[in-house]
Here is the input.
Amino acid sequence: MLTFYFHPTPNPIKAALLLEELQVPYELVAVDTLKGQQHAPAFLSINPNGKVPALVDDGVRVFDSHAILLYLAEKHGKFLPDSSAERAEMLAWLMFVASGLSPFSGQAAHFLHYAPEVLPYARNRYVKEVARHYRVLDERLAMSPYLAGNAYTIADMALWGWGISAGYIFGEQGLRDYPHVRRVLDEISARPAAIRAQALKEKLVLKTDFDEEARRAMFPQNV
Here is the structure.
């Protein structure tokens, strides 16, 4: 049995989407990050970095959302391109999201919503880098139906994870300036698997107040 450790935030939702696309059975285990459950010794034995998502597949542990995407896609032989050229594109865009869009989006969200003081330089730096990454993605998707080419792959799932939360960074305008990105995200969001992945949060009872307990749990190095 596959056990999936989850909190309904951008990186875990990528892995949830793939699990639902594959329609493999799994046990959903909530990790309430605002309560600090990601720092519990039992969870750290699965992911020593103390972050979600993570999974255990018949004794095999995998952590980091993009490692999970690759592991499951390769194990089941789905959502990977057939040609070596498109596989190279898929890997490049998957890593572009992993090393660029994801961390810059996380830092932008932090300085916009969670930092204890307003730091204009940090806000400007990270929001503009997020915008630059979306411009690069939009230019790619203006030329190609999906990031890797003609097929929907785990690279698109990785983009979807953060893209559906872009309004948290850009406000009401969301992805209005990136119509090709929005086209792909809207298409993915309409898929039954994405609807099921989004609905996972309704199955969980999680802390929602961002109080001092949550601040210590999320940013222990800063308190």
Summary: The first helix runs from residue 10 to 22.
